[in-house]
Amino acid sequence: MDKNSITGFLLIGLLVFAFSWYNKPSEAQLAAKQRYQDSVALVKAGQQRIEAERLALEQNIADNSENLSDSARQAVLTAEFGSFASSATGKNEIITLENDLLELRLSTKGGLISYARLKEYSSLDSLPLILFDERDDSYGFTFITANQRVINTATMYFEAVNKTDNSVTLRLSAGDNAYIDFVYSIQPESYVVKFDINQSNMGRHLAPNTSYVNMFWEQTMRRQERGKVFEERYSNLYYKFVADDVDYLSASGDAKETFTNRLKWIGYKNQFFSSVLISRDGFGASVLDSRFLKNDPLYLKKFRSEAEVDFNLANANPASFDFFLGPNSYPLLTDIDKELGGDLELTQLVPLGMSVFRWVNKFLVIPTFSFLSKFISNYGIIILLLTIFIKMILMPFTYKSYISQAKMKTLRPEIQEINAKYPGQDNAMQRQKATMELYGKAGINPMGGCLPMVLQMPILFAMFQFFPSSIELRGESFLWAHDLSSYDSIFSWDAYIPIITPYFGNHISLFCLLMTVTNIIYTRLNMANSAGQEQMPGMKIMMYGMPLMFLFIFNNYAAGLSYYYFISTLITIGQTYLFRLFIDENKLKTEMLANAKNPKKKTGFMARLEEAQRLQQEQVKRQQQQKNKRK
């Protein structure tokens, strides 16, 4: 290892050390984090203790029910739960709220939503799509009473009062006209459930210094789709900071994060559906946890959130929330965002890619897709028209690319002469310089053929993100594909095959196969139009290998994506043959010869490229002279 390499490694090490030292938390931050962790641990211990005592108490009452009088039983409950004794036992009742889109079932035990069904969607087995039920979802709030007892609402019994067609109030009584109300309401044609916590005369029953309560929310994410690989990839725990962007926990494995900054909402996201809890005043310090459920045929991940919620006893409505329980539809989430304040960024639940790729989807693909869907019900036809529309936009650049390739093709004999004149690796610089001089005289920009590809790349990557996350394609059939949001299997098998099954899958997707074939055809056609391919024989193998890689990569992807790439490549092949009919290559060569006789001053890219080559040749020459001197 030479001196420069050692110096470089030392500098890198110093930079890493300096960055780590600069970003380490302060003593105050560490102390605040420790206080919060101690608080969370205390609440957890209290919750566990109260639940254990509750179970033991209920068992004791059950075992001695014949020996205990009603007054004695009430005395035991009062000793344990204080003024909440009357709510410590009871019977779980189910109350139903629904509109045209949602069916909700609320349980009086815990005062929570224990069941949510989306009426307009079905599961992968064509059964009603249940977002969650009492086995999958639970949430509650922990209150500290005036006598320092811990009350967890999830274990208490509420009473249903003020039931109407679109709202219900579940009341947790503390006696003497003191109570905590959970008020749920839904509007027609809405996926939003408003959830308000009201209180009356609770100042003497809760700890006098109460300024916040601890909330927990856990959910086991159900499988809803056929393709588990992508459903698992797109299922994650999302959150938004009050004064910052949307983020999410790591999707590649188990993850847990502690935040002291306030959060605006917490979302449990599936590939196409989400449960989002939005706090109108924001959540305080919080802990978010995501766990994989490996080898579970029914569930994907388990999410849990714990957060502080502001709770002012002087306010009759100390806390308010909104539940979003519905599909990850970009237009729908845009409308809900406006309805609830305009700064929620709920559309981030739809993974459309980063920066420029998201812009392409947001301002081009989605508006076009939504416009066409107003008039056409077949999404296969919509994808076809969308593809044609995009290819028409890019057609002028594609034409320019073909002209550039055709010009270089006509110069193939001259390029072969240059290769023969400067053979071998030692003459690579001279060969490249002579080739660039030839292009310059003929008026060819060697980068001209790359422009359409550069312009198409954002669209290709945008589509790569759009189709697997577009709920509009879910369950939509086209030709042999039964679901454009999943793979279109024409042949499948059950046996596990090492390497093949984990990466390729136990099926063959026809649209993916067609996409691969058309890419091979286009590669052959494109290479036939290129000049100088003889000097890069390894390039031919790589160019043909890429479509075969696509076969393995896209076999598990959405059929809509493979169908789009197939149609797009097919149109490009058709454009190539169409250009051939109208472009006279002999005429192009005549024009280039005329340009060579009257060369123009080089500007722009060609001038910079030749100057870079000149400087590089001078540097190589100086290095060679220094080597000769040392000899």
Q: What is the top-level CATH class of the largest domain?
A: Mainly Beta
* Morphology call: elongated
Domain module count: 2
| Residue runs with pLDDT of under 50 for 5 or more positions | 1-9, 19-23
The biggest sheet amounts to:
14 strands, antiparallel
Strand content: 15-25%
The CATH topology of the largest domain is given as Beta-galactosidase, Chain A, domain 5
The number of E-state strands comes to 20
Which structural class fits the helix and strand makeup?
Answer: alpha+beta
Mean pLDDT figure: 79
Rg from Cα: 33 Å
Estimate the helix proportion, in percent: 40-55%
CATH architecture label name of the largest domain: Distorted Sandwich
- Helix tally equals 16
Distance between the termini: 22 Å
What do you see in this structure?
The protein is α+β, with helices and mostly antiparallel strands. It folds into 2 domains: 90-351, Distorted Sandwich (Beta-galactosidase, Chain A, domain 5), CATH 2.70.98.90; 362-509 and 554-597, no CATH class. The chain has 16 helices and 20 strands. The strands form 3 sheets. Strands 5, 6, 7, 8, 9, 10, 11, 12, 13, 14, 15, 16, 17 and 18 form a 14-stranded antiparallel beta sheet that branches. Strands 1-2-3-4 form a 4-stranded antiparallel beta sheet, with no helix packed on it. Helix 6 (355-373) crosses helix 10 (451-469). The longest helix has 37 residues, at 27-63. It starts with a helix and ends with a helix.
